[in-house]
């Protein structure tokens, strides 16, 4: 219970902090907050870079993040609508494959055939 309370407190503090810093306001305030955070983190990044054997890339600029977000959003929308438009054919294909696979089982085939009407010769 204490672990849950700590997690809930951290999540609440994160939401409160981001609200107070302007992340959830208009885009101009968000950009200012991003630049402020970038400037405050830069010295720590430089210190960490000197201690690591690999080279860390620079933090991305705002316009690159915006462009990437737009591209990702558009790609996600296109993929979603493509999936929705192809869904009927995909479901039909999966259904056909499932029926074929099930009919390979002799017990299932006998069960299904037991419902089909028998010819006149078989009824006698």
UniProtKB/TrEMBL annotation:
InterPro entries according to UniProt: Mic13 (IPR026769)
Entry annotated with the keyword Mitochondrion: yes
Signal peptide, first to last residue: none
PANTHER family assigned: MICOS COMPLEX SUBUNIT MIC13
Recorded family membership: Belongs to the MICOS complex subunit Mic13 family.
Function (record text): Component of the MICOS complex, a large protein complex of the mitochondrial inner membrane that plays crucial roles in the maintenance of crista junctions, inner membrane architecture, and formation of contact sites to the outer membrane.
Protein name: MICOS complex subunit MIC13
Organism: Exocentrus adspersus
Lineage: Eukaryota, Metazoa, Ecdysozoa, Arthropoda, Hexapoda
């Amino acid at each position: 219970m204490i672990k849950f309370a700590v997690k809930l407190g951290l999540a609440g503090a994160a939401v409160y902090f981001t609200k107070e810093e302007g992340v959830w306001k208009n885009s101009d305030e968000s950009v200012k907050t991003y630049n402020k955070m970038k400037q405050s983190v830069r010295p720590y990044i430089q210190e960490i870079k000197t201690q690591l054997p690999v080279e860390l890339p620079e933090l991305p600029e705002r316009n690159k993040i915006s462009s990437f977000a737009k591209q990702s959003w558009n790609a996600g929308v296109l993929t979603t609508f493509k999936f929705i438009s192809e869904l009927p054919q995909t479901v039909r294909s999966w259904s056909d494959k499932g029926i074929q696979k099930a009919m390979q089982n002799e017990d299932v085939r006998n069960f299904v055939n037991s419902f089909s009407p028998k010819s006149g010769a078989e009824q006698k």
